[in-house]
From TrEMBL:
The protein, known as: LINE-1 reverse transcriptase isogeny
Record Gene3D superfamilies: Endonuclease/exonuclease/phosphatase, Ribonuclease H-like superfamily/Ribonuclease H
Lineage of origin: Eukaryota, Viridiplantae, Streptophyta, Embryophyta, Tracheophyta
PROSITE patterns in alphabetical order: RT_POL
Keywords: Nucleotidyltransferase, RNA-directed DNA polymerase, Transferase
Alphabetical list of Pfam families matching this protein: RVT_1 (PF00078), RVT_3 (PF13456)
Highest taxon in the source lineage: Eukaryota
């Protein structure tokens, strides 16, 4: 059919197919059929004309009685028809006798009422060379009064447009006619003047084309394509579609009647929003909570400090140039273009507002536009009232916001994530997914509950008196409170209904959505509810959810007006929740919409219990649906989870856009869409491979087939995805983008320890380990996504010092000075020089300073000296046959590094230090001390490098030590050999000095019995000696657990444990702990001595001779190798 029509055309009727998953309810969505339908639209250059009225056009019952609804009927037109009939609307009528709804296409021939349309600054005016002078004269003639200057500029601009600039489209047609006449004349005669005139006309025509392009770009509100060449038709079409989408043709009135009369709809809209903004229901009283955070003196000084011109300009540059203007009609682009003219006056006005706390009420005038929440709005509730504020007013609030953002995180709970630097929507979504995963896996009978509360018209219902009390409670300065309340309460609202400005509404409550300050004020108000909940948790009245043993508890999660509450599944908990919410709503003016609110329970909660809870809360149990735009699920995600992403990208990459854009424009749009829309989901979930492949395919098809729907890929995808400086188009591969976004979560788990979700995930999955060493793969889908990204990223992790571009030796990357000033280098040439000086009779002795028996060569100093050989023996290097076979020092070092790596190098260094201490200080270091120092240095060096895991099975150095000063250490042990059982122990001071020793034997005891008997006897002796602070150490872990945890009174050794407990309960400080056997050698000596002891108990006032070396070694801090 397409080949038969060259003119604008439209198709209307039942197509028996749908394009997107949201166009049906019930049944299964077929991607294959939707793809075929989309291909047909692409081949025929058709686009959907939209609709209003009922959402679905066909309905029938399926098996089981459930209804299946689909939007099978629609109107399709090509781009030419859409532009020709910009007012055309499709209405879905009521169904009576058929399973299809009738549809009615109105082509917009009925003349609409033309009301007062607000002034709009045209960016195309700035292309005229004389407009800058007009702005300067109009502005400077008002003596610095910004409001009067804007009014004068507005009047002069309108006059300029009428008398000089004129209608772009009429000028374009006039120039085309002149060009046609000149070209006809040139066909008959050669004329230099006509050729010159043709060039001038062509230059003027190009200027008009530029102005036309700017005009439609400004009206299109297009965010994806930047201003470029030959895109005028694209921007024009986009403007028509946007206007059609935002135009309200019919709605259900509050009384339930359907109405399509524009006058009636406008009148009812004014009444509806006047009722919202002007009715005051709250008491406005302050909510008093103990331990409430307040602003510091530095924060207060920051808020009241004089405003600088740089602050104002920074706030201006932070605004998008072509954002919709306020009542004065000037967009940010005007102030950016003429900042050299208007800057000083605007800055003075803003600085005065901060110093006085007062603003002119005209600055706060606001237009209200209605943005549909759904594709086909049916009532006024389906619109979101967005405020269009004047740019100068927004500069005041934006400067205030920039100051507020510096410290707002200090007074906000970590459970509030919205609009706070360093926090994002992902934080709350991760926590909710983890809670759902926990509840799905939990087998607790009592169970947990989640309540997802919907706050009805949240911003519009905030009570002003309550807001003022909140600011005062947080400690805001009086002048700042006055400024904020002036900004909030000085406004007058004008509803912009289908482009026509209505009468003013004077509000008495609410915050304006569109004002940069409103989100932060709302967050401060919601923090009051969070403080009430926190206080209830602190008083042990509110029982929060805890998803891991060591992790933090979770009572609530806030993101602006999205509210999640977590409690135990008890009726009393639900009633407490109701009481707290009712108190907050009564004072703040907010209202819970129970119809849209949802509840979710653990799997173990019965239906009867759910019914009782629903009866108390009036909130129905169902799935949570989406949260902050993220699909919420548990288990493995199905294809339907990612379908909305595919639908949005398909809509943004509509074929008609590809046909109206040049190839560079298509590349720009594809890069913007693919890099933006999936980003929201990719930062939380690992996308399946088929989704990533489909996204890449959609991008390729749009780039190469956008103009005709057909074509081949002329350049390999691998080349297109390269960076521009490498010859590519900088198109992102979906999988790489997904990994990089999830990599941010991996980095947060490494570095972002102050984030609440990191604390939860760390305690649940990592415990005290690092994400780089984590082996746990199972968990929620979010955790599995993080681990998959971690596995990919781990291959590219590299150790970098400081900021990644510093010298290891000569720059201060440690913060404690360059290493070259702290680390000594070993110059082996000093030893060779010493030997040479002896041969030349310059030095009288070349003997080794450690053994004083052989020549001190390099190899002798580091390996062959018998003092040094003991070090290598302790560290077990001598077990290698080749260790002593290499005589070349360099080759030996290389061989040693292969054998022992960091330990070998550390040992050489410590041997050199020990040799120098002997030479220069006269102190000799023992072999075991050198070995211990080398081992410690080696472990420290190994731990520096993240990619090298420390082997926990390596030998460890252990030894006896006192837990603290001014105490007595009691070491006890037991020993069993055949039919003999002995026990023993020793008491020493904290510096290892001898106090008392004992040993003994007993018949028929097992090893645990004699261990307990040794502890009992040692404690009795310590009490008898009058000791008041005793640390008892034993190498029997079982005995320590029995004493600390207790045993059954029927147990064979329960009487020993009870006697020990009686001693512990007496008035003295005693602790019992476990030590390794290498730290308990003295007690082991006395226990073995007790095996052959003639008496049941023998006391030693002086130490036996055989135990003195052991006592001396412990007192000297000697360490022993534990393999």
């Amino acid at each position: 059919m397409r080949s038969l029509f060259q003119l604008p055309w439209v198709l209307l009727g039942n197509f028996n197919d749908i394009l997107f998953g949201h166009e049906q309810r019930g049944g299964n969505f077929s991607n294959a059929r939707a793809s075929e339908f989309q291909t047909m639209l692409d081949n025929c250059d058709l686009l959907d004309l939209g609709y209003f009225g009922n959402k679905y056009t066909w309905q029938r019952p399926s098996m089981g009685g459930r209804l299946i609804s689909r939007r099978l009927d629609r109107a399709l037109g090509n781009q030419s028809w859409r532009v020709l009939f910009p007012e055309a609307t499709l209405e879905v009528l009521t169904r009576f006798h058929s399973d299809h709804n009738p549809i009615l296409l109105r082509c917009g021939l009925v003349q609409r009422r033309r009301g007062v349309r607000p002034f709009r600054f045209e960016a195309a005016w700035a292309t005229h060379e004389g407009f800058s002078d007009i702005v300067k004269l109009a502005w400077c003639g008002e003596g610095g009064n910004v409001l009067n200057a804007l009014q004068a500029t507005r009047e002069e601009s309108i006059k300029f447009n009428r008398e000089v600039f004129c209608n772009i489209f009429r000028r374009k047609k006039s120039l085309e006619a002149k060009m046609k006449g000149v070209q006809k004349a040139l066909e008959n005669v050669d004329s230099a003047s006509l050729i010159r005139l043709q060039g001038e006309l062509l230059q003027e025509y190009n200027s008009i084309l530029l102005q036309e392009k700017i005009h439609w770009f400004q009206k299109s509100r297009e965010q994806w394509i930047k201003f470029g060449n030959k895109n005028t038709t694209f921007f024009h079409t986009q403007t028509v579609i946007r206007r059609r989408r935002n135009h309200v043709s019919g709605l259900f009135l509050p009384n339930g009647e359907w109405c399509s009369d524009n006058n009636v709809l406008e009148h009812e809209a004014s009444l509806y929003f006047k009722n919202i903004f002007c009715m005051r229901e709250a008491t406005g009283e302050s909510i008093i909570t103990p331990n409430m955070p307040t602003l510091s003196d530095d924060n207060k000084n920051l808020l009241v400090a004089p405003v600088t011109k740089e602050e104002v300009f920074k706030a201006l540059t932070g605004m998008k140039s072509f954002k919709a203007p306020g009542p004065d009609g000037f967009q940010p682009i005007f102030f950016k273009l003429y900042w050299h003219v208007v800057g000083d006056d605007v800055w003075n006005l803003i600085n005065e507002a901060f110093q006085t706390g007062i603003i002119d009420t005209k600055l706060a005038e606001t237009l209200i536009v209605l943005i549909p929440k759904v594709d086909a709005p049916l009532s006024y509730k389906d619109f979101r009232p967005i405020s269009l504020c004047n740019v100068v007013y927004k500069l005041i609030t934006k400067v205030l916001v920039n100051r507020l953002r510096v410290f707002i995180g200090n007074i906000m709970s970590p459970l509030q994530s919205s609009f706070i630097p360093g926090r994002s929507t992902v934080d709350n979504a991760i926590i909710l997914q983890e809670v759902l995963h926990f509840m799905n896996k939990s087998k607790r009978k009592k169970g947990d509950l989640i309540f997802k509360l919907d706050l009805e018209k949240a911003y519009d219902r905030i009570d002003w008196e309550f807001l003022n009390n909140v600011l005062l409670d947080f400690g805001f300065p009086d002048i700042t409170c006055r400024l904020i309340m002036n900004c909030v309460s000085s406004s007058s609202l004008h509803l912009l209904w289908n482009g026509v400005k209505s009468a003013a509404i004077i509000p008495r409550r609410g915050l304006r959505q569109g004002d940069p300050l409103s989100p932060y004020l709302f967050v401060l108000c919601m923090e009051k509810l969070g403080l009430l909940i926190n206080q209830a948790v602190f008083d042990h009245r509110w029982q929060p959810i805890k998803i891991s043993k060591e992790g933090p508890s979770i009572s609530h999660l806030f993101f602006a007006d999205d509210c999640l509450l977590f409690i135990k599944a008890h009726n009393s908990q639900v009633r407490l929740m109701q009481i707290i919410i009712d108190e907050f709503c009564t004072k703040s003016g907010l209202k819970i919409n129970v119809e849209k609110s949802r509840a979710f329970a653990s799997k173990t909660i019965t239906s009867a219990k759910k019914a009782r809870i629903q009866g108390i809360s009036n909130i129905r149990f169902t799935t949570l649906g989406k949260y902050l735009g993220f699909p919420i699920f548990y288990g493995r995600p199905r294809r339907e989870v990612f379908q909305p992403v595919m639908d949005r990208i398909s809509a943004k990459l509509a074929t008609w856009k590809g046909k109206l854009l040049s190839k560079p424009g298509r590349v720009t749009l594809a890069n913007a869409v693919i890099s933006s829309i999936p980003t929201f989901f990719m930062q939380l979930y690992w996308f399946p491979n088929y989704i990533c492949s489909t996204l890449d395919q959609m991008s390729r098809d749009f780039i190469w087939k956008g103009s005709s729907g057909k074509g081949i890929n002329l350049v390999a995808w691998t080349k297109i995805t390269r960076r521009r400086r490498e010859g590519g188009l900088n198109t992102r591969i979906s999988r790489f983008k997904n990994v990089s976004l999830l990599g941010k979560l991996v980095w947060d788990l490494l570095q972002g320890h102050d984030k609440f979700w990191v604390s939860i995930m760390s305690k649940k999955y990592l415990l005290s380990d690092s994400i780089l060493k984590c082996q746990r793969k199972q968990g929620s889908y979010v955790w599995r996504s993080i681990i998959k990204a971690h596995d990919v990223l781990l291959l590219g992790f590299k150790l970098k010092l400081g900021n990644g571009d510093v010298s290891f030796w000569f720059e201060d990357w440690t913060g404690e000075g360059p290493l070259c000033e702290k680390v000594w280098a070993i110059d082996v040439h000093d030893l060779e020089m010493r030997v040479g000086m002896f041969k030349r009779h310059i030095m009288g002795n070349d003997k080794c300073r450690q053994c004083d028996s052989q020549e001190e060569t390099v190899m002798h100093c580091f390996r062959d000296c018998h003092e040094v050989q003991e070090v290598w023996r302790i560290l077990q290097f001598v077990s290698c046959d080749t260790f002593y076979q290499i005589d070349n020092f360099k080759m030996w070092v290389n061989h040693g590094i292969k054998l022992g790596g960091a330990l070998f190098l550390s040992t050489i260094w410590e041997i050199w230090l020990g040799r120098n201490r002997l030479v220069f200080e006269g102190s000799k270091t023992k072999a075991w001390q050198v070995a211990l120092a080398a081992k410690s240095l080696s472990e420290a060096m190994t731990n520096v490098f993240l990619n090298h895991e420390v082997n926990s099975n390596l030998p460890k150095w252990v030894g006896w030590s006192a837990p603290s000063e001014n105490c007595v250490i009691l070491n006890t042990d037991g020993s069993v050999m055949e039919d003999k059982a002995g026990f023993g122990g020793v008491l020493r001071s904290s510096n290892g000095a001898w106090i008392h020793g004992f040993c003994g034997n007993v018949d028929g005891y097992e090893i645990i019995g004699v261990e307990l008997l040794g502890i009992l006897q040692g404690l009795r002796i310590a009490q008898r000696l009058g000791l008041s602070r005793v640390y008892c150490q034993t190498n029997s872990l079982a005995a320590v657990k029995w004493i600390q945890g207790g045993v059954s009174h029927m147990h064979h050794y329960s009487n020993l444990v009870q006697e020990i407990h009686k001693l512990l309960d007496k008035d003295w400080a005693v602790s019992i702990s476990h030590v390794l056997r290498e730290c308990n050698k003295c007690a082991d000596y006395f226990a073995k001595l007790g095996l052959n002891c003639p008496d049941r108990l023998t006391n030693f006032m002086e130490p036996p001779l055989d135990v003195i070396p052991l006592l001396q070694a412990d007192a000297a801090g000697e360490r022993f190798l534990r393999v």
